[in-house]
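Recall that a protein's primary structure is simply its ordered list of amino acids. Everything else, from secondary elements to tertiary packing, is in principle encoded there. The following example makes that idea concrete.
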Amino acid sequence: MRLCLMNAIKFKAKAPLLLHSFSLPTAKSTLAFRGVLTPPNATPLSLTKIPNTLTFISSPFLSCRAAMVPAACVEVKEKIELTETEKKIFDRLLNTLLHFNLQTQLRVAGGWVRDKLLGKECYDIDIALDNMLGSEFVNKVQEYLSSTGEVAQGLAVIPSNPEQSKHLETARMRLFDLWIDFVNLRCEDYSENSRIPTMKFGTAEEDAYRRDLTINSLFYNINTNLVEDLTERGLEDLKFGRIVTPLPPKATFLDDPLRVLRAIRFGARFDFTLDKELKKVAACDDVKTALAAKISRERIGTEIDLMISGNQPVKAINYICDLTLFWVVFSLPPKVEPAVSEECNRLSAAYLDASWQLIQLIGCSNFDDEQRRLCLYSALFLPLRSTTYKDRKDKMIPVVNYIFRDSLKRKASDADTVISIHKSLEKFLSLIPSLLSNEDVQITEVGWGEEFYVPVTSKLRVLTGFLLREIKDFWRVALLMSTLLYPTDIDCSKDIINKHFQLDKKKGIFKSVDNAIVKLGLEKVWDLKPLVNGKDIMNVLQLKVGGPLVREWQQKTLSWQLAHPSGTAEECLDWMKETHSKRIKME
């Protein structure tokens, strides 16, 4: 089977024609492209299907390509195969056109087309309309569905916000349990003194050139069942794994600076190569200034979260470092203590790399998706764990809190969890030698600042139990962070930044400590129900109301319970009465 990229056109004016073609070898077939170089005033004619082929339509503005084409490196499917759900969705949309006798062209844009051609499933369907707003078409679909007895779900309109580079109104609706976004095709005009464009309806080609990347500029025309490559680069760049902007990168990035981070994310996700000129422009001061000033922190945070949660977080963060974007993205408050070193961003990336590799080595099954995500954030911000700043009330706050809540606008629980993990590391590091050797730990050596009325032989279990109750489900994340910093008597940062990770050794420490904790019966210790409650304690102390003394004894009785895993409530109360009686006599 041959997959042909053809351009059938007619001329408004006579002009010489120049035909050219080239073939891209694939494992199963030859991918052939044929085009016609035409004058700018040429207009498209009807599309032509060739027997046993899937036809692609390209722009009339065909750019010349080098005669020599490099070997293929990415397998691109020869046709888009729709799922049953997608067929039903597109059928409803086409029936809407017929019902109202609309001449609208419906095109699925961007990522869905790209992923389908790469053989990946995609549930993010964005549809571009050539002659009406998304909200107008959604209303038509709703009216058509009502006429057939079906009910449209989840209708919504998201307004444009040009100040934050969101130039288009987006309408949404839910069909067959999938969210579908509808927008109009666009082109933009910029006045000389304004960075906010004037939006108007555009052609499909104008819209394609305004996309972030050529691999995201492809359309799937629902009316004709054709893939449209209107930049003449999308299929080729997808085929050869290239991250390129349709227009010169500076124009594309200044239009919407978030595209810099999207280019990084897609380059990392697909292991594609960033274009040389794209990298140069991404690192320039104009683009960095625009990214910091023009894009909302929520949008930046969303992109970073997608990178960290993705399949290549290390590659993405390394790109951010290489393009000198680290402190633009992870911005700090004006004054921090202690001052952040120049190499901190590289050290952050190196800790991320070490953590990512160690997770793979230990086994991903040890961490769920949320644990893995926050583990990588914990590693990324590990060099900043002791850095603080003053808030408006002159209170010293971990700078990691600022990064999550202000720089990335992530949820407060993310900041709280990562800070909790960082705070647990000193305690975890103090316990690792005893957990590795299964020897008794001396409380004076640990310096926890707590008073425990338990036998020395039980202190290891008690201390470990209290620590795990603090960080709960994230104790293995804290353990993994601790192994990167262990042993504490040497500065491991130089080894980390030079990629001397000693991963096999770190894995051995992790597994040994993990096994010791499980053997102690503490794997889910935070679910342990106290043997005695506040009311029991108040009865022993002969108190009428609670207070700090009750909370103090709650900790003490819990420490007794951890030291005596087979103990009963009665035994715990007897111990409490005896201890309390001795304390009164001493006073």
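The first strand starts at residue 2 and ends at 6. Confidence is low (pLDDT under 50) at residues 1-55, 59-72, 191-195.
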